[in-house]
């Protein structure tokens, strides 16, 4: 064993010799740690095995008879709690406790992952071309505002295998008036075949896929219904007698003529 003695002056202060000895000792410890790490006896931070990354798939099959869109649609990134705004795969072991699977991660943060998959699902429908994620250069006729409220597996004491739960609140915003024309919450569950991570991920894929299918169909139908109502109101104003567009004082009625 090597012993390093340091010198002190009469006041008990460290001399340059002691300071140099401390630097030498630090270097010896670092070299020892690196040699032990190379032998597998010491695990340094960041040197452990990389987590397994998992992705989910966009929806590609939809109900027949959905309307074709001629407008531009912007899909915003979902708002989520701090617990869900992560690339970690969440699991509830009780209604009030949220944990994460060890050694497994999503390929992206959950809100960003859901946004990307939903944009791809709209594109896969073949019914809307002008759809994209929120960006400074993209101005849509409608915005899809999302809130990711549930995106986790559940494994309580009375259940042998996990159940995945997804819940997404969706609001359609008409631009540039920024008015909400429709709002709905979509929730789906799917049971995993076992408690193995690949089976849990497959359950996530099933639950989220069902949710996205409903969101795409509901969005296209809701905007189509809104535009038909708006067109009917405009047609009614154009064909209305002049007397119907004047208020009691003989002035144009702004509400009736659409001002």
β-sheet strand percentage: 25-35%
Q: What is the subunit organization of this protein?
A: single chain
Alpha-carbon Rg, integer? 30 Å
**What is the strand tally?**
9
Low-confidence stretches: 1-43
Give the name of the CATH superfamily: ABC-type transport auxiliary lipoprotein component
Helix content: 25-40%
Would you tell me which CATH topology applies?
Rossmann fold
What is the CATH-assigned architecture? 3-Layer(aba) Sandwich
- The string of secondary-structure elements, in order, is HEEEEEHEEEEHH
What does it look like?
There is one protein chain. With 259 residues, this protein is an alpha/beta fold. It has a single domain, classed as ABC-type transport auxiliary lipoprotein component (Rossmann fold), CATH 3.40.50.10610. It has 4 helices and 9 strands. Strands 1, 2, 3, 4, 5, 6, 7, 8 and 9 form a 9-stranded mixed β-sheet that branches. A hairpin with a 4-residue loop joins strand 8 and strand 9 (179-191). Helix 2 (110-125) crosses helix 3. The radius of gyration is 30 Å and the shape is elongated. The chain starts with 15 loop residues before the first helix and ends with a helix. Residues 1-43 have low confidence and may be disordered.
Topology diagram in text:
Elements: H1 16-38, E1 52-54, E2 73-75, E3 79-80, E4 88-94, E5 97-106, H2 110-125, E6 131-133, E7 142-154, E8 163-174, E9 179-191, H3 197-239, H4 254-257
Parallel strand pairs: 1-5, 2-6, 2-7, 3-7, 4-7
Antiparallel strand pairs: 4-5, 7-8, 8-9
Helix pairs in contact: 2-3
